[in-house]
Amino acid sequence: MATRNRDIKLLNFLQNELELSNADIAVALRHRELENGPLPMLLWQYGFVDLEQLGKIFDWLAEHS
């Protein structure tokens, strides 16, 4: 349950702080299921976040792990 709560908080962070659209996040989530890749890297790979934003995501994950 804690993992699910953290996932929800991460999605909120992506939407509220990095201003990613629901559609962008949905695409990355679909690819995560198919490729079993980490969400931050998929967001970067598909061009939804730049390197600075990717760093912010990793910082957020480190603070909330």
Q: What's the short version?
A:
The chain has four helices and no strands. The protein is mostly helical and 65 residues long.
Keywords:
0% strand; mainly alpha; 65 residues; globular
Describe this entry's structure for a reader.
It is built from four helices and no strands. It has one domain (2-63). It has 65 residues and is mainly alpha-helical. It starts with a helix and ends with a helix. The chain has helices spanning 2-16, 22-35, 39-45, 51-63.
How many individual β-strands? 0
**Oligomeric grouping of the chains:** single chain
- Class per helix and strand makeup: mainly alpha
First-to-last CA distance: 14 Å
Output the radius of gyration.
11 Å
Number of helices: 4
Number of domains: 1
pLDDT averaged over residues: 91
Task: Encode the helix/strand succession as letters.
Answer: HHHH
Q: How much helicity do the residues have?
A: over 70%
- Beta-strand content estimate: under 5%
* Main pleated sheet: none
How would you sum up the global shape?
globular
Taking pLDDT < 50 over at least 5 consecutive residues as the criterion, the unreliable ranges are none
